[in-house]
Amino acid sequence: MDLTISSLLFFGLLISGALATSPCASPSDDSDLSIVHIYGKCSPFNPPKPESWVNTVLDMASKDPERVEYLSTLVAQKTTSVPIAPGQQTINIGNYVVRVKIGTPGQLMYMVLDTSNDEAWVPCSGCVGCSTTTFLPNTSSTYGSLDCSMPQCTQVRGFQCPTTGSGGCFFNQSYGGDSSFSATLIKDSLTLGTDVVPNYAFGCISAVSGKSIPPQGLLGLGRGPLSLLSQTGSLYSGVFSYCLPSFRSYYFSGSLKLGPVGQPKSIRTTPLLRNPRRPSLYYVNLTGISVGRVLVPVDPKFLAFDPSTGAGTIMDSGTVITRFMEPLYNAIRDEFRKQVPGPFSSLGAFDTCFTASNEAVAPVVTFHFPGVDLKLPLENSLIHSSSGSLACLAMAAAPSNVNSVLNVIANLQQQNLRIMYDLTNSRIGIARELCN
Ligand SMILES: *[C@@H]1O[C@H](CO)[C@@H](O)[C@H](O)[C@H]1NC(C)=O
Ligand SMILES: *[C@@H]1O[C@H](CO)[C@@H](O)[C@H](O)[C@H]1NC(C)=O
Ligand SMILES: *[C@@H]1O[C@H](CO)[C@@H](O)[C@H](O)[C@H]1NC(C)=O
């Protein structure tokens, strides 16, 4: 079964929707929020326009190994305490941002979406090492502090309470593999589109170190206790979806849809798997990969879900290109190379680049899950060199260290797909949608 029928439906929807709004307009009047690429035209961060798209992707993808290692460290109840020092803040993340308001009256922040984190956090006034846009708690009429004795505090990764007496809920967290921050858990209203979530618990950052902390904070869309879904309960009924715009669509935005209303009615779904050791992560049951008509022969242990080791496959919005455990990647690549005329060369993280004129014979890559066969559109499996003369298989091997038991399905492979996370029914839906 493929996704052609739903894709037709969505092209229809898209045409009616696209005429109504300009790409960088303010969010529409319901829970449908725009998602823009941090390097895109609609990004508030005014990044230098990259001279070539492939170099941008390669630059962003060079941070993936750290991201994958970081994801491997997200083990339950692990308390990390890392030194914090003032750092020069630069944009150094390959990610998508969404426009939200915090406090009353609402203060506008462009927060990075992260499906593998639970907590939200924003830089607060006085933050050491943060950029100039900070949240000012003392100008918000709905701001409140959260004492260490509150249950939310013990749910924060890396929390630390004073050994005696009460006090603020402090925490230090690492992020992205090379950065860290220290923050205090506070609560205030969070406005998403027209929805107001009162008393939302999130981190107010006082110091950052490293270059990977999103400049205006992060909205955790994971599945653990402090995530957006957990804190909004009945408002969104444990359902959200996003469509990430193409990396190449400099001007355009995708969307984040919160709650069951407006989600695709006919969408193929596959069960979500729960790993108690990594409660934030969205594990799926990747059972095989086909290249063209060939089901790639692989040792099942590289696909197996194993809660005791954390092994398996996750969907992640913060990794740029899909990473497979090395033997698995090598098997996919070798099959791909059999079906495309060589010679093959490397470009950054990509080791299977070939003359772009042979693209017409490049096989389709399909990810198999129970209930869903995801045939990657060519744009999601190949990437072109800046001159256009080369096409490369846009995937890579995960870093081959001891912790690397994860396969990560990343942004580039999720472009122009609607990915629906339904925690109530413990499933993920995937449908083609041209969202940019
Ligand atoms: C966070 O790190 C800083 C700097 O090392 C330290 O002063 C502070 O106590 C730490 N806070 C927590 C909650 O661990
Ligand atoms: C809020 O706090 C910041 C620094 O923490 C201070 O500069 C500012 O004057 C305060 N604003 C008000 C309205 O108190
Ligand atoms: C993954 O799917 C396969 C095939 O449907 C099934 O046999 C296996 O039990 C599933 N694994 C998990 C962890 O659900």
From TrEMBL:
Record keywords: Aspartyl protease, Disulfide bond, Glycoprotein, Hydrolase, Protease, Signal
Source taxon at top rank: Eukaryota
Residues covered by the Peptidase A1 domain: 96-431
Residues making up the signal peptide according to the UniProt record: 1-20
GO molecular function annotations of the record: aspartic-type endopeptidase activity
Keyword Cell membrane: no
Active site: 114, 316
Keyword Cell membrane in record: no
Gene Ontology biological process terms, A to Z: proteolysis
PROSITE patterns in the record: PEPTIDASE_A1
Pfam families associated with the record: TAXi_C, TAXi_N
PANTHER family: ASPARTYL PROTEASE AED3-LIKE, ASPARTYL PROTEASES
Family statement drawn from the similarity comment of this UniProt entry: Belongs to the peptidase A1 family.
Protein name, entry field: Peptidase A1 domain-containing protein
